[in-house]
Every structure is written in C-alpha cells, then in structure tokens.
Amino acid sequence: MTWSEKFPSHSFFRENTLAYGGDWNPEQWTPETLTEDFQLMQELKVNLMSVGIFSWAKLEPSSGNYDFAWLREILDECHQKGIQVDLATPTAAAPAWLFNTDPTATAVTKSGVRLTFGSRQEHCPTNPTYRQAAKKLVEKLAETFGNHPAVTMWHVNNEYACHTLRCYCDNCAINFQKWLREQYETIENLNSAWVGAFWSNTYTDFTQILPPRTTATFTNPAHELDYYRFADEQLLRNFLTEAEIIRRHSPNRPITTNFMGEFPALDYAKWAEHLDLISDDDYPDPANPAAGHQVAFNSALMRGYAGDQPFILMEQTTAAVQWRKKNTPKRPGQHLLWSLSRVAHGANGILQFQWRQSPGGAETFHSAMVNHSGKSSFFWEETALTGQVLQQLNAVSEEFTSHSIAVLTDADSARARHLSVGPKETPLNYAAARAWHKALWEKNLPADVVAVRQLLKQNPNRYQVIIVPDIFIDYPELAQHLEKAAAAGAQIIVTKETGVVDCTLKAILGGYLGSLKNLLGVKVTDHRINASEYSQLSSENGVSLPYPKPDPRVNHISSAVGIPGADRQIYLDTDFAPLQRALEKIGKPTPRITGFEWGEYVVATQPASETTLPTWLNDEVEVIAQFSGQGGNDLAGWPAITRRQVGKETKGAAWYVATDLDEVGKAALLEVVCAYARISPTAVDLPAGVEVTQRGNVRFYLNHSDKSVQLAGVSGFELTTQREATGHVMLPPRTAIAVAIPSRLQK
Ligand code: GLA
Ligand code: ZN
Question: What is the pTM assigned to this prediction?
Fold first, then answer.
C-alpha cells in the first residue's frame, strides 16, 4: 500500500511529495525573526515543519493555564504559506513548575541520585503528576488543533529514553512490582525464571523486589533484563496514552515518534506496531569514512520497522552536531549526498534538527538549516540545493524497495547479551547485524534489516539469504521459520552467540544453539575467548600488556607460558574450493580468513556412528573451514564454519559460523553464499567509492568518494537534473544522481 492510499486525506501524503523541513522552535525567537523564517522557508523549498517539540513552558506557563494563541498564529500562517505541520506534543521536557509542585517528579538514577531540573527529559516516566499533566495538555492541544488544516501529522514526545532510559525511584518500584505480578502471576514462577536459588536471591513476596539499584556486586541479570523491559513498556504506555488522545481528536492524521536508529534499549519492533509511520533521527559522523554505511543501515532498520512502507528521516544536521568531543561538519556535497542516499534507501522525508540554530543553550553550536550567519553561512547553498533536488524526486515517494537478503536484529537479545555477565563484555547495540550489513553494502548487495518479531510475520519464502547474527535468545518459532525458509531453498547463516539463553537469561542446557541445533546439525559445547585484545597493545607498539611480559632471565617458569591466541587474530583454514576462490578474488596476496577473539567448540548434534570420526563430524554436516593453531589458538583443528544441506532439490543450506569473522571472512563467505542463492550485486566493476542501489524503478548512483568518477551504462531519465542520461556519466566527489529506469516513470 502506498502512502497516498494509506493516508488519503492529507496533501503531503496525497500528492506524493518528499518532505523537506525541520524542527522549528518559534518560541526561541522574536516576531521579526519569524517573519524572516517564513520567507527563508520558501527559499529553501520547505514543505513540512515539526513544531512545538519543546514548548511546554510556553504552552502552559503555569499549571492548567494554557496559552495556545501564539501556536495558532504559527499554524495559520503555515497553512497560508503552504507549509504543512508535524505537530508535536511537548512532553519530552516538562516545565519547572511541575517539579516544584511535585519534587518526586524528577527521575532517580541507578545509584540513587535524584535528577535536578535544568536540562530536559529529567522526569520520571511513571510519575503521576507528570502523567496527568501531560495527558491534560495533550488533550487540550489535540482538541484545539486536531483539525487545523496545517496539521498533517503528529510527533509524539521526542526521542523516548534518549537521556533517561530507566528511573529507579520508589514510584517506579511500585509499578515494577505490579508489572512483575502481571508477568509471572506467582512468586514461585518468578523465582524459577530468575533462578532465585542462586546466591539466595529467592523472594517470598513481590513487594520485596526493588528496581535493580546499586548492588554489592553483579545484580541478577534476569532482574536487570526485566527492568529494561518494564522501563521500555512504561515509555510505550506513555506514548500510547498520548496517541489514543490524538486519534480521538485528530482522526486520519498519522502519528509518529522519532526513533534513534540502532537503539536496543527500546524494542522498536514492538513500538512500530503502534506507529502510523516510522521516523528516525540519525547523525552519522562525517569524520568516519564508513558513515555512508550508517545511512544505509539505519534506513534499512527503519524500512524493516515500517514493514515495507517508507519512513521519514525526522532529524539530521546540515553540517555539525555539538555533542561529540569533536564535531566535524559534513564535507561539501555530503548533505545532499546523504539526503539522496536516505531517499534511495526508503525515506519519504528529509527533515533536519533544526530549522534555526539556537541563540543560546546547550545546542548553540549545533548547526541548522539557518545557521547563526544566516544566508552567508557556507552551508546555506547546499541546504537550498537539497530542497530543490528533493522536489525533482517526488516520483520516488511511491516506489518500494524489496531485497532478497535479510539481516536479523532482536532488541531483547541485544539487551540480554549486554546484561549477561560473561563470557565477554558486550555493549548494547546491533554490532553484528551492522557488520554483516556493511559487508553486503560494500559489495553493492542490497539487504533488508528485519527484527525477528517482524520476520515471523512474513512468508518463509520471502528471502533467499537470511543472516542470524548473535541472536542470543533462543526462539523456537524462529528456528521453525528458518527451517521452512531453508527447505524452500534459502541460505541461512547463523553466527556465534546465537541461541545461548532463554528469554529470562537461563542457559540453554545440553549444548548452545537451542532450537537451531536441528537446522544447523551442530551445537556448541563450550566458548573459548582468546586474550587477543591484549596483543593489540603489544609491547612492540610501546604500550605495555595488562600482564607484563615475563623476562626469561629471572622468570624461569612463567616465561615459558604463552598468552592464549596471542596474535590479534584467530586464523581459519579452508579446503572448500568455492571459499578459496572467493578469497583469491579478493586480491593478491590471497588473504586468510581470520576471526577476532571469539571461538567455540562445535560438535555435530547427532554424533557420527563411526567411532573413528572426530565427534564433530557426521555425514550431514560439512566443515567449510577450521581453526588454525597459529598464534597459540587452543581451538586448532576444530570447525569454525559448517554447512548443512537442507533438501537436496532446493539447494537450501544452513551455515554456522563459530567465530567473529573479520571483514575478509565475511566478504568471502557472502560471495559463496550469494552465489548459491543466485543473488548478484546491483552493479559490478564500479569505481571505488560508488554505491548503486535501487528503489523500485529508480536507480541511485551515489559517489561517496573524494574523487570524480566516470560511470558507464547509465541510461534512463535523470530525475535529479531532469535530463536524459546517455550512457556515460561523470559524478564529482560526494554527489549522487537518481535515474528512472526507462518504461515506467518516464510516462
Ligand atoms: C536529538 C534531539 C534533538 C536535538 C538533537 C541534536 O536528536 O531529538 O532535539 O537535541 O538530538 O543532535
Ligand atoms: Zn521513577
């Protein structure tokens, strides 16, 4: 279903336009500036503005005393000028008077510090004073402006959990106990799920359970994980309360809240089910050469949450942010390039934080569409050009993207993995999914990023390749889905750290990989983490090791003991011809596959009957690569990559990767697997730095590099310049074009 079919009553959607605009905070400015704002908006070809995000203090200067006149003026004028409004509820930053009324309304940190007013998002999400005041204000706002002709969509709150992820106050404690009662019904169920027998962490009543505040040593990870889920659900509940009010007063206008890309603290796949449209905030660092991948990856995440619908980029910056230690601005061309890339990957709107650079406050040095120097800013021209070019691309807004490769994510698994104590510390992110997606992106192999929750709703035939990277929690339904997909011919790649625990962080007994053991034909008996990170800091680099290198003249015993996996890498050997060929193709000298410090002991699920065979072999599972002993790896000779053929006719297969493959390993394995799946890159033999990706019938050529490139065979109508492409095209550094493939969009 296209947006115009889904939201027929609002022109921005009905007319299939791409949105361009930003967060606008008129309350920070004088009337003269606002007059100028409207004029500059026309110049920049702005058509959608997010208004009122942090305006609570101005909309309700004191409790129950509402002042909406100024907002009405803004909305009226927007309507007159043809600018549509994404009207925000200002509930992400409550005003000072609210905290005066109720000093317990500010959140409490894990270590018991009550936050002080003077920033934003300092409120406790379950605080009744906050909840009631927010509800009343949203009711008034939606009642007053729900049918205003300028209001095209709603922006609920702002970046839930951006700063205050969890509150640990007494009120949250009571709510948590209630939540636990609903989840577990009896205290015995909870004790069993949390393995309460461990360290005598047994409860006899729900009222004994507090938020996981500071404890003597490791807190029970199951307790922590449930607190993450509880906190997530409290915020979702706040969103739903506001959304329900808005839907009553402002029917047919889509409701969103802005996501923050890769942010497993909230289970966005669950949230997405309650949003009418998905929007995202994303600030790739221009100092990172791989920042172009962040655009592709976060867009793929959003497409996944949107369930094949487009999304809106709700925030990016035109130049630099202010919150990094050093804030490199975008390079010339990069703003337009990344905006087009975002559209190529499924965005129907390109909005910036923010419209006008703040005169003061913590974001004074965060750039905007209108910077402090106004039209004389270096970035003005490109901001204007972006508005113009987007107008040429309106036809793209009805085009859909659908790829044959899926990379899976799962917020709960990321949280569980982060909270589990050992085998290795892991930050809370989707690092593995991102790395696999990047390996595909670098090869111009377009891929979707799909949450497990969303994959399960799809037809198992949909993808030809499914990558299951570090999905820590064992989901029997996922295993069933993947079995069906493999039986239908798909290639399934499962990587280490998958299926290790159940949903309350209890270990899978009898061998990890849980329900995937049958599909893969293998299970994991043990983990082996090499100390390889130490060797990065080898004394040769002038940095000392955490363990001093024993001097053999005086350390007669310890000098003869090695560090496990003392080389930074774990090396892999392979006799598998397609993989060898893929490695040769990468370049001379032929690289070796390496993995980082993670390794596993992998054995066949059904041990071979022949006693002469090593335990990990049977006639169903092939060893594609094994660990080498080089660098003192104790896993020498054990399988590192296995494959089990599923269904002789269909060529489906399930691959298991028992290490953290480096980029070469990923690239080579993907080459082999995609060949089996008959998937080829969008374009080949491209100059370095060029990404080619297709959105429906529009092909985007994105030159991320610092050099001009020549492209051959580009034909069709070039939407960006409104000219026919004649075969050869020259793209200057950091530029992009969008070409409508002949036949459809040319009519
Ligand atoms: C977030 C917020 C904005 C602003 C930007 C700055 O995305 O939603 O209000 O603070 O960060 O980058
Ligand atoms: Zn609280």
Answer: 0.96
